[in-house]
Amino acid sequence: MAIAYYLSLILINLEKMPKHKEFIFREFLPTDIAGALDLWSSVDGMGLTESDTPEKIGLFLARNPGLSAVAISDNGEVIGALLCGHNGRAGSLYHLAVSACARGKGIGHRLVEFCLARLAELDIPRCNIFVYNDNEEGNRFWLGSGWIDPATWRVLQIRLS
Ligand SMILES: CC(C)(COP(=O)(O)OP(=O)(O)OC[C@H]1O[C@@H](n2cnc3c(N)ncnc32)[C@H](O)[C@@H]1OP(=O)(O)O)[C@@H](O)C(=O)NCCC(=O)NCCS
Fold first, then answer.
1. What mean pLDDT is reported for the chain?
2. Tens digit of each residue's pLDDT (9 = 90 or more) over 27-64
3. Which residue puts its alpha carbon closest to atom 41 of ligand 1?
4. Domain count of the chain?
5. Is residue 159 one of the residues assigned to a domain?
6. Quick one: which atom of ligand 1 is closest to the CA of 98?
7. Which of 105, 112, 128, 140 to mutate to test the pocket of ligand 1 (most atoms within 8 A of CB)?
8. Which domain holds residue 59?
9. CATH number for position 113
10. 107: Cβ below 6 Å to ligand 1?
11. Beta pairing class for 69-72 and 127-129
């Protein structure tokens, strides 16, 4: 009888435990590249280019040590990723994505905070992000958290290869 009582207490407490431990936010390491590419490939309209091979991402991380971020789930999966670099004058963020099943929990904002804090430590005074005009979710995310659309200039581009 007593055993049954203690077993039921354990079961009740297990039920109350969160299904996910806290996500881990940390620097994006070369070992995260495959997981991040899987995540980015699963997101509609991510706009992956020839710069998104494992080798090219590895070069980007090496050129910008410690600036990019990932969120890791309790089973070790990359469920959020953001690339961050700078050219000495301004920072740039690329490919913010969070797994569809983990959105709306503040993970996107935590990744951005991580990268902006690293840029601030390096005394980089501003940061840019390119968002497709028709990406409603993306535009809401950035414009709702203090980012501005200066609308006084265009981004122009030329291809070198
Ligand atoms: C845009 C994207 C990265 C946001 O990731 P996310 O983890 O869902 O972002 P957050 O949870 O930090 O914020 C999303 C919303 O949840 C809300 N939120 C944040 N923390 C929350 C919490 N603890 N509980 C409930 N809601 C919360 C935020 O207010 C935010 O609302 P808003 O979008 O109206 O501003 C994600 O939707 C995504 O991967 N989209 C597809 C790829 C994409 O478009 N990327 C942007 C390219 S530029």
1. 90
2. 999 999 999 999 999 998 788 999 999 999 999 999 99
3. 97
4. 1
5. no
6. 39
7. 105
8. 22-143
9. 3.40.630.30
10. yes
11. unpaired
